[in-house]
Specification:
Blueprint: E1 7-13, H1 17-21, E2 33-36, E3 52-58, E4 63-75, E5 90-98, H2 109-116, H3 120-124, E6 131-133, H4 136-147, H5 154-166, E7 180-181, E8 184-185, H6 196-204, E9 208-213, H7 215-224, E10 226-229, H8 234-239, E11 245-250, E12 265-277, E13 300-309, H9 327-338, E14 342-343, H10 344-355, E15 365-367, H11 376-384, E16 389-391, H12 406-409, H13 419-432, E17 436-441, H14 447-461, E18 470-473, H15 480-483, E19 485-489, E20 501-505, E21 525-528, H16 535-539, H17 542-546, E22 551-557, E23 560-566, E24 578-581, E25 587-592, H18 596-601, H19 604-607, E26 610-614, H20 626-642, H21 650-666, H22 674-686, H23 695-705, H24 707-710, H25 716-724, H26 731-742
Parallel strand pairs: 1-3, 9-11, 17-25, 17-26, 18-21, 21-25, 23-24
Antiparallel strand pairs: 1-6, 2-5, 3-4, 4-5, 7-8, 9-15, 10-13, 11-12, 12-13, 12-14, 13-16, 19-20, 22-23
Length: 749
């Protein structure tokens, strides 16, 4: 149950009234006690010693009949002083403030609703539930009514007056109906600049909206870090923009009719990141479930750059969908989610005071700042920020189950015989299987381009899973300091050995937390030329993490050891010293098979954590006959057609094609890919020489783009000799460069 104030109503059946008040024991000092079970939707932790209890007798003539003060809450099986004949789970013992009025205080519910500015049906629930923690408005109405009741003693009168004047400022979980909240005036112009949500509004002049949904839909929204619109609300979805601020309003009635109603409230907020759509074949929301009588679809998503909640998010198991939970589990989740939310009545009152109109509760989306002099949105943000807890803006418990956009990934690239489509299909299958990926192949086959495009497309297509992507290149100097992190002097520390040190995360850990604000991130990393690094030296503790086990690092932050956690071992929201690995996080790496030695030096322990996907060079015709020449020119024409901005002559295409063929056929399994051919053609067409001069620019291009790929290759002498046999190549220029750059002489071939 959400705790709103320090005042409770206990509805007590007239048959057990005397038992609860201790009248039947014959002991004048008998302690009033009231029993409850878990079905009452309240827990012992919701009470505070000293809380006020308005005891309401339920009979043909119901009303408030006594006032008590909470003294102790104990499990029922630990005390002999339970309520006879009832199987309660825990007991609230109270001290008497006034034991039975001379005449009970009967509520006029219509008048009560009018004075409280509340819905009549909501007010009537005060008489139907065993225990209710009063909203501030309800508490105020009860106090005003009881102070006018002639049966109230001076002790009770003083207590009620003190309660009204003091409010509930000592309890941070309570929403307070007064002008001061957390020491600041929620009615003041502008908003609290210290909160990131408020700072964003001030810095960007963002628009503020409210989104309304049933409470179980909000449970799904936090599960997927996204809010959904149906087909009929497509226009309202389109009205929103990245950077807009939205407040999350929960209705009281769940979409799942079997679940308990919750208090209508504002339970969170967010800064919109992107508008996107969800996979068509996936059912997220309760009304999308298979065979649902409503047969609804909610394909249009709002995702978030920053996401906040007021509830006990850490008590909710987001690894399982609401569709897989029973009603007991789902009700517990809803109770945790709506805990500490801003009551609808509070939001409605703020709107009435600032805009002379109530909070818009009905439509799924409405703006809260409609005119320059009407700012209920900013006032609501100012009132709620002290109660917001930041939560991950990506769905860290969800796996990748979507599809890659093959057409966009291959745009501007050419692969023969649908090889490109096959590579993308393999990448998609590896992602869905939960594997990291290494693309292997000769230099220039497009490995890095494909890996980078695939990782970036994940962030673009699935922003509720991924927050970006990062490309880096491995080096021989890499160590765990580069990948995991280590201690570094702080910016304010001294330059000598006595300066302060702080943990600085490495390139891998920086993909798991936003480097600017510390919030949870999920950025796939692309490591180009992975085989340049000493894998064991560079990855260290990451081996354990990649195998699905959590790791503690020998570093601290805020006096806590740095922890690398898998998402299923994370409890609640990651703390500052914790780095959580989302289920969908992936490493993309490329490996140049020109240097096979490094490939086979990789340990099996490392290799088995990756799916190896081959990106080969195309098969080129071998021979100088006319048929081979025609086949080669067909291949060259197909590549040139896919490359925008290149218009080489037939002679240039023929010469470069011959160089490509001689390079790839010189030594078995030693080849270059079309990206290097593109570089050769781009250089030649840009090099200004006489009309018939091709030898010089072609040879320069070979030296500039092919020779660097041959460094360290044992068979490089034979490859250079084969290239020198191409008629259009300047043999002397090539030989001189080979001696200087590769320590190769053509006479050795």
């Amino acid at each position: 149950m959400t705790r709103h104030t320090d005042t409770w109503v206990f509805n007590i059946d007239s048959e057990v009234w005397d038992d609860c008040l201790g009248h039947k024991t014959g002991d004048e000092d008998a302690t009033p006690r009231f029993g409850f079970t878990d079905t009452d939707d309240v827990s012992p932790d919701d009470f505070r010693v000293g809380d006020t209890v308005l005891a309401r007798i339920v009979s043909d003539d119901s009303g408030i009949g006594a006032v008590f003060e909470v003294r102790e809450i104990v499990p029922a099986d630990t005390t002999p002083h339970s309520v006879p004949g009832y199987d309660f789970e825990w007991i609230v013992f109270c001290d008497t403030v006034q034991d039975e009025f001379n005449s009970i205080y009967r509520e006029n519910w219509e008048r009560f609703a009018e004075v409280s500015n509340a819905n009549l049906e909501a007010v009537k629930t005060l008489a139907t539930r065993n225990v209710i923690n009063l909203f501030p408005e309800y508490k105020q109405t009860y106090i005003d009514g009881l102070l006018e009741h002639d049966s109230v003693t001076e002790v009770v009168r003083t207590r009620l007056e003190d309660s009204r004047e003091s409010g509930d400022e000592d309890d941070p979980s309570i929403w307070i109906e007064k002008t001061e909240i957390e020491g600041r005036n929620y009615k003041q112009d502008g908003i609290d600049p210290d909160h990131p949500l408020a700072a964003h509004i001030q810095e960007t002049d963002a628009r503020i909206y409210k989104l309304t949904a049933p409470p179980d839909n909000w449970l799904t929204a936090y599960e997927y870090a996204a809010f959904a619109f149906g087909e009929s609300d497509h226009g309202l979805w389109e009205d929103l923009s990245p950077g807009d601020v939205v407040l999350f309003h929960s209705r009281s009635e769940p979409a799942w009719e079997a679940l308990d109603e919750q208090a209508s409230c504002i339970l969170g907020a967010g800064i919109i990141g992107a508008l996107t759509t969800k996979p068509q074949d996936e059912s997220w929301w309760y009304d999308e479930r298979p065979n649902s009588p409503k047969d609804q679809s909610f394909p249009y998503l709002v995702t978030f750059d920053r996401l906040y909640a007021t509830g006990d998010i850490e008590d909710i198991e987001f690894s399982r969908s609401i569709l897989s939970k029973d009603t007991t589990e789902a009700n517990a989740d809803l109770t945790a989610l709506t805990a500490n939310g801003m009551p609808f009545e509070t939001a409605d009152k703020i709107c009435n005071e600032t805009a002379e109109t109530g909070f818009p509760r009905h439509r799924i989306q409405e703006p809260l700042d409609t005119t320059a002099d009407s700012e209920p949105g900013r006032t609501l943000v100012n009132a709620i920020t002290a109660h917001l807890k930041e939560v991950p803006p990506v769905a860290i418990h969800k796996s990748f189950t979507g599809d890659l956009d093959t057409e966009s990934l291959l745009d501007g690239l050419y692969f023969p015989d649908e090889l490109g489509e096959t590579i993308i299909e393999q990448i998609q299958a590896a992602l869905q299987a939960g594997d990291h990926i290494i693309l292997t192949g000769p230099p220039g086959t497009g490995k890095t381009e494909i890996a980078d495009r695939a990782a970036q497309s994940l962030a673009d297509q699935y922003p509720y899973l991924y927050s970006g992507a990062e490309l880096t290149t491995a080096t021989a100097d890499w160590s765990t300091f580069d990948t995991v992190g280590g201690y570094m002097p702080t910016e304010t520390g001294a330059d000598d050995a006595t300066g302060d040190l702080a943990f600085k995360p490495g390139i891998i850990l920086n993909r798991l937390k936003d480097t600017t604000n510390g919030t949870q991130a999920n950025e796939p990393i692309i490591i180009d030329e992975l085989n340049r690094a000493d894998i064991d030296k560079a990855f260290g503790q990451l081996f354990t993490l990649l195998s699905g086990q959590s790791v503690q690092l020998p570093y601290t932050r805020n006096n806590r050891e740095i922890e690398l956690l898998t998402n299923n071992q994370l409890e609640g929201v990651p703390a500052a010293h914790q780095y959580a690995v989302p289920n969908a996080w992936r490493i993309f790496a490329t490996m140049n098979t020109y240097d096979k030695t490094s490939l086979y030096e990789m340990s099996y322990a490392f290799m088995r954590r990756f799916a190896f996907i081959r990106v080969p060079a195309p098969d080129l015709p071998h021979g100088d006959d006319e048929q081979s020449y025609d086949a080669l020119m067909d291949i060259m024409d197909q590549y040139v057609a896919a490359w925008d901005g290149l218009d080489p002559s037939e002679a240039q295409r023929r010469a470069v094609g011959r160089v490509w063929t001689h390079t790839n056929h010189a030594v078995e399994d030693r080849a270059i890919g079309p990206a290097i051919v593109y570089d050769l053609l781009a250089y030649i067409t840009a090099r200004h020489t006489s009309a018939n001069e091709l030898s010089t620019p072609l040879t320069e291009a070979v030296i500039s783009y092919i020779f660097p790929q041959l460094e360290g290759v044992p068979e490089r002498t034979k490859i250079v000799a084969h290239i020198a046999d191409v008629d259009a190549v300047d043999r002397d220029m090539l030989a001189a460069a080979a001696r200087d750059m590769l320590q190769v002489t053509l006479s050795d071939a």
